[in-house]
Amino acid sequence: QIRVRVIEGRQLPGNNIKPVVKVHVCGQTHRTRIKRGNNPYFDEIFFYNVHMTPLELLDETVSIRVYNSYSLRADCLMGEFKVGHAVMRKWLLLSDPEDTNSGAKGYMKVSMFVLGTGDEPPV
């Protein structure tokens, strides 16, 4: 099982934004509730039940994307971060996947870890 906790965002760009976070793991996507503002607090945990060997899991990446739900455009991606290993309460720098040289697109604080059968999650 993979658990991803979306904690909060900071310095997300834009005015009157309503950010929503989509977490994509092993073909499964979960999304947070929509919040308001540039420094949203989410504190939501998503559970992904995966049936892979630890070696197969190493090849998987976790995509954390922040969208502005207020925008009526279909493509309202504000920034993303892709990670392939456990992180605990870390600030991740969001960037534009189409233009990686465009600088920071805000930050997301997340925790993520993989649990085997019978494992206890870290505190």
Task: Describe the structure concisely.
It contains 1 helix and 8 strands, in the order ββββαββββ. With 123 residues, it is mainly β. The longest helix is centred in the middle third of the chain and has 5 residues, at 54-58.
Q: In terms of topology, how is this protein built?
A:
Blueprint: E1 2-10, E2 19-25, E3 28-31, E4 41-48, H1 54-58, E5 62-68, E6 77-83, E7 87-93, E8 107-114
Antiparallel strand pairs: 1-4, 1-8, 2-3, 2-5, 5-6, 7-8
Tell me the distance between the termini.
Answer: 16 Å
* Overall mean pLDDT: 85
* Main sheet strand line-up: 4-1-8-7
Structural class: mainly beta
Order of helices and strands: EEEEHEEEE
Number of strands: 8
| Helix share, percent | under 10%
Given the C-alpha coordinates, what overall shape results? Answer: globular
Q: Note the total helix count.
A: 1
Strand proportion:
over 45%
Radius of gyration of CA atoms, rounded to a whole number: 15 Å
Low-confidence stretches: none
The major pleated sheet works out as: 4 strands, antiparallel
Structural descriptors:
mainly beta; globular; 4-stranded antiparallel beta sheet; 1 helix; 123 residues
Descriptive overview:
The protein is mainly beta. Helix content is 4%, strand content 46%. It has one helix and eight strands, in the order E-E-E-E-H-E-E-E-E. The strands form two sheets. The protein has a four-stranded antiparallel beta sheet, with no helix packed on it. Strands 3-2-5-6 form a four-stranded antiparallel beta sheet, with no helix packed on it. The longest helix is centred in the middle third of the chain and has 5 residues, at 54-58.
